[in-house]
Amino acid sequence: MLKKSKRAFPKSTGSAFHKDGDVEIVRATSEHAAYLQHRLRPTDIRECMIAGASPWAALHTPLTDKHGKTWTILFNGEPACMYGVSTVSEEDDLTSAIIWLLGSDLVEKESRKFLKVTRQIVDYLQDRYDLLENVVPIDHTRTLKWLDWLGFYFSDQTTTINGFSCVRFVRCNPAIEVRFE
Fold this sequence. Notes:
Strand content: 35-45%
CATH superfamily of the domain at 18-134: Gcn5-related N-acetyltransferase (GNAT)
CATH topology of the domain at 18-134: Aminopeptidase
Order of helices and strands: EEHHHEEEHHEHEE
Strand order of the largest sheet: 1-2-3-4-5-6-8-7
CATH architecture of the domain at 18-134: 3-Layer(aba) Sandwich
Low-confidence stretches: 1-5
Number of strands: 8
Shape: globular
């Protein structure tokens, strides 16, 4: 029996960081941010509000982050979401980053593609960062299930941000033990 080979990620092309059929990942642009700012899912708009940012600011500010990288996932050429990382620490041979994603309803309509590519993305980023982390509102159950599926761990303690209960999530290099203290 022949063994299926694991497809390499990313499969870069001239202009794309990754391309697989009608799924493409490219460097995010202000045009992508402008397109998505009016199409974000209600939960993503709420996350922006909790963080004290408008959708415009939440999508445009990362484009100027000197310590970050921001990409757009396109389905059939249409921006579905923007995501990125912002390095917060590179001390003692440990690199950590804040990871984030804001998306349109297209991520729900193309859920299989979204799930596949986001798992590839998180695995890829985990090879580059020892620790990936952020917070999510505790009542965003679909997001929590997705993050759990991606292999993130959650703190038992909630954190209040602008009056909203949130939970910290982390994913570490397998050589690092996760403990919340």
